[in-house]
Amino acid sequence: MTTATAPSATDLFARALRYENRADPYPHYAQMLRHPVARMDDGSWLISGYQEIRQLLHDPRSSADRLDPQNKAPKAARSLLLQDPPLHDQLRRVVTQEFIPRIMGMRDHLGELVARLLDAHTGTGPGQLNIVADLAYPLPVTVICELLGVPREDEPLFGSLARRLTRGLDPVDTQSEEELRELDEARGELINYLEGLITQRRTSPGDDLLSGLMFHPDPDQVMDPIQLRVTLGLLLIAGHETTVNLIANGTLALLRNPDVLARLRTDPDLATPLVEEVLRYDPPVQMSGRSALADIDIAGTTIPKGSRIRLMLAAGNRDANRFADPDLFVPDRRDNAHLGFGGGIHYCIGATLARAEAQIALAAIARRLQSPRLVTDPPPYRENAILRGPEHLVVAFERLTPD
Ligand code: HEM
Keyword Heme on this protein (predicted)? Predict the structure, then answer.
């Protein structure tokens, strides 16, 4: 007689990362949720419960240092995403001061950019769009490059660098030696490019975010050259590689739920709660990490000081102890405090911008594409497991109407 043993936390984590499971990792997260706090064979901790993740995101004893053996940069040369207070708070204050005012009042401009991208495909008859390449990717790329002051002609270079670099976010043991070498090369190219851009701005500042960071009126707030470069790199990568998946995952949810698509067409205000639901149901950032600065008691277990912690944001978003019918896509879900943008002191700085881009793009898709349907379902997914989204999302339509 054989007895079925429940898969271990280590197995479940590996299954959630495996490329064959990329189209639907959620059944594996559901299994993780049976043990919301679980120890893995390598001594790290797998946290999948909503409350437990929130507790750790807000706990000052959980450090943003992921203890990633692959990250060889000295601590001071890491971005604010990986820093703890007080340096984190200092850097975040400067970035927020420069970033937030520049994105206020941007909705009209975003509407124009979306219109321009879709207009390129307007016609009188049936056609196809690759939502990723034609809309979801170029929109955030243009926006972040405009904000930071990266010249338009460098956008394609950035696109390819960002794509090569995001693979570096995945756990090292899922990558071949060649991939790791390729990553190092891409990092080197990014550093060279950013240094060139900074040197150029030093002699000819503009009114962009980079110039704002470089010439801050308060000398105490001016970043040192290394921090400036890593902050710029963080904003560029975060601006390139996350919003694309929010728009693409949102389009997928819309096309799989034709009733929701029809509602959005007649009620564009639905875009606001709908984007929140995409961030809960199929979040672009699936997981994050921390480490324990002290013993942390959580859900009756002690995570010992010095442990690595994996926060499964996408699993927490499907936790039935927090969300009713967690596996249902409910476009106007209330009480939707999802973990899609993280939480606590590292809560996403770009959340307002990403929300606005996705709301405007999804509303335009619903309004302008007549009888849209997916050409391949599920679509091919990107290799990356942490940033989850389709590689291509081809949508056929009867007509793309002018705005
Ligand atoms: C942090 C998600 C777009 C800039 C984060 C975190 C998440 C996240 C989950 C927290 C990570 C953690 O605590 O470990 C997303 C998603 C986006 C998005 C889902 C799009 C849909 C953006 C954009 C920008 C941005 C457009 C800026 C251009 C940042 C920065 C941080 C951050 C700077 C670090 C904040 C800190 O450490 O204090 N983001 N992000 N993000 N995000 Fe985003």
Answer: yes
Atom of ligand 1 nearest to the CA of 342: 9
From 67, 346, 348, 353, the mutation candidate for ligand 1 (largest count of ligand atoms within 8 A of CB) is: 348
Model confidence over 228-280: pLDDT tens digits?
999 998 998 888 889 999 999 999 999 999 999 999 999 999 999 999 999 99
Quick one: average pLDDT of 44-69? Answer: 96
Confidence at residue 167, expressed as pLDDT on a 0 to 100 scale: 65
- Ligand 1 atom index nearest CA of 289: 14
Query: Domain map of the chain by residue range?
Result: 9-400
Give how far the C-alpha of residue 275 lies from the chain's centroid of Cα atoms, to the nearest Å: 13
How much is the average pLDDT of 284-299?
97
The CATH number of domain 9-400, selected from 1.10.630.10, 3.40.50.300, 1.10.1040.10, 1.10.357.10: 1.10.630.10
User: Which protein residue's CA is at the shortest distance from atom 10 of ligand 1?
Assistant: 342
Which pLDDT value is given to residue 266? Answer: 97
- Ramachandran region, residue 344 (left: φ > 0; alpha: ψ -120 to 50; beta: rest): left
Cα–ligand 1 centroid distance for 234 (angstroms)? 9
Answer yes or no: is the C-beta of 341 below 6 A from any ligand 1 atom.
Answer: yes
Q: What pLDDT, on a 0 to 100 scale, did the predictor assign at position 290?
A: 97
DSSP state of 381: B
Sequence-distant (6+) residues with CB within 8 A of 161 are: 186, 189, 190, 193
Residue 80 alpha carbon, nearest atom of ligand 1 = 37
Q: What's the burial of 74, exposed, middle or buried (CB within 10 Å: 0-12/13-18/19+)?
A: exposed
